[in-house]
Amino acid sequence: MLLFLDTADLDEIRTARSWGVVSGVTTNPTLVAKAGHRDVRAFLAEASHLVDGPLHFEVTALDREGMVREGRELASVAPNLAIKVPCTEEGLGACRALAEAGIPTNVTLVFSLNQALLAARAGAAYVSPFVGRLDDIGADGLGLVKDVVRMYALHGIAAKVLAASLRHPRHVTDAALAGAQIGTMPFSVLRQMVRHPLTDAGLARFMADWERLDAR
Ligand code: E4P
Q: Is the minimum distance from the CB of 132 to ligand 1 under 6 angstroms?
């Protein structure tokens, strides 16, 4: 499973990139607003250079024509842009139009198998089941990821399953074991994945032993 960072924070992108583990970045309107980017094009231009892989950015129009217009404009900023559209009737139509124009799309806010099937049939390059938000309402987020992976395999569907709304390291492990091709997560989750108390303790012991050798 490839690891994507879910953020609109340029410093987080820089740091995670320096670890050499990030294959792409997703954002959403909430994250862009939180980061306070007033000039979206400037943010996209800068972020697109920092990302070794696709940068997923979401349209904010709600009608098909508006989404297509916005998607085309955004995609013109950098060659590695993928356009996120919501899983609505208008969003599916926009996905089809953008896909036919050669612009990769990510159908987002997917919460059911039928939505995942529709998104794939609308030509989505990526489909994003939201794990944490399903768990929030007592449903089985990872179960949906597993089922989408199985359904796509059964029908030879090429759309990539992008497990989104991953809130903790166990979500990441389970999404990878479920067969999602991509998992996107906040920087805090990526950092939690690196850390292990036995790594810290082991390193401290190695360093202490090494210093004893130096002291001789
Ligand atoms: C993915 O593209 C979404 O931006 C994200 O994963 C949503 O996560 P949340 O449900 O924790 O807000």
A: yes
